[in-house]
Amino acid sequence: MNKRRLLFSYIFFDVLAAIISWICLYVYRKIVGESLSFSSIGAAMMADPTFFWGLLLCPAYWVLLHAFIGYYNKVYRKSRMDELVTTFSITLFGVLIFFFFFILDDIVTSPRDYIKYMLFLFAVQFITTYIPRVCITTRINRRIHNGQIGFNTLIVGSDEKALQIYDTVMQQKPSTGNFLIGYVKVDDNAEDCLTEHLVCLGTLERLPDIIEQNHIEELIVTLHNGQRKHIETLIALARDHGNLTLRVTPQQQDVLLGTVKTSSVMYEPLIAITPEYLPTWQRFIKRGFDILFSFIALILLLPLYIVLAIGVKRSSPGPVFYKQERIGYKGKPFNIIKFRSMRDNAEESGPMLSSKDDTRITPFGKFMRQYRLDETPQFFNVLIGDMSLVGPRPERQYYIDQISERVPYYKLLLGIRPGITSWGQVKFGYAENVDEMIERLRWDLLYIENMSIQMDIKILIYTVMIVLKKEGK
Asked: What is the pTM of this model?
């Protein structure tokens, strides 16, 4: 079964569950709330437009809710225990929302009827949703365990440790679902213990091309301590390929520090690194908050923009706004917008970072920079999706190339939208050279590994405090 057919199966049965639960709820409400006889309910259905609207809207509501939570993102390798917990939680959450929006206007003889409606809807919705899901998941897992379904997998490494992992994967019963396509060596001089078992597809230098050519879905990394520096590059590579899962063999210190997390009892414990920094529902909320906040900010700041535009125009000849190409989400270039704070053609001799006593900055530009007013037009960048309110500051390709030569994992920052403010901005401030960019980088890396809605709110609050106190660098 391919991924699209499997996804369609899940959605189809979720739609069917929503239709059944709506019909059952409608019948139950008519019998309990209006004391209709069972024989007269059919006629009531045909004469009630609400019933037909429910047949259309309820499936859409539940499918969108499941998609919002991220249930449809990974249709393979679902755990039946996780399936139970996830379905129970989403159904409870969805019933509460549905209840308060659509059922509280019912005419009831007792408040206890509301509780009856809610419990009835939850029971029917949960049962009709969970039973098909667990059947599909059980069938797919059985096919994976039997080796009928698998995922193209590449071993990164070629020493004795790689051979041990190869033997473990091949002898694992039930099957892990890993179809071993081959392996790559760290370099041409690396120890090679896998040559009699798998095809060597090249070295780490060719890994991006190997992944594309062989449709690799998983990497099992078996590098020893002296080679673990390459993991940073591999993590960046996994972020570039959205469907690529990285599994790293743990060292003893990883076990002691508690970084090895697994829900499987039967399989080799590996550190799984997935390309998603935020759960799907949090990504939706983050983007929704970006749109709402930036839209309101653009409207409220319009009078200030007029004043700033006049100030920029009177301070020095040239345009009011300054546009500069930056590199954004997944390496896509975009034009960042600012109020011009420097004299026109300030970079005619080439890219230059500004400093505290930069002579190119106009007097009015210094005032704007003091309160970061020159950055406020970037709310438009946020609104159209080039940026987010919170995220690593976007840089120019010229400086990204210099940073990446020294710190390859800088590319991890391109896995999320850049922001107007960031953890690096709060802790370090603006960078005046590449060394300071690299120093600020560690804070931005901490952010992407600890991303959450709560973290964004904290960073926004601290940003406002720093601007008002004029403490920022």
From this structure: 0.70
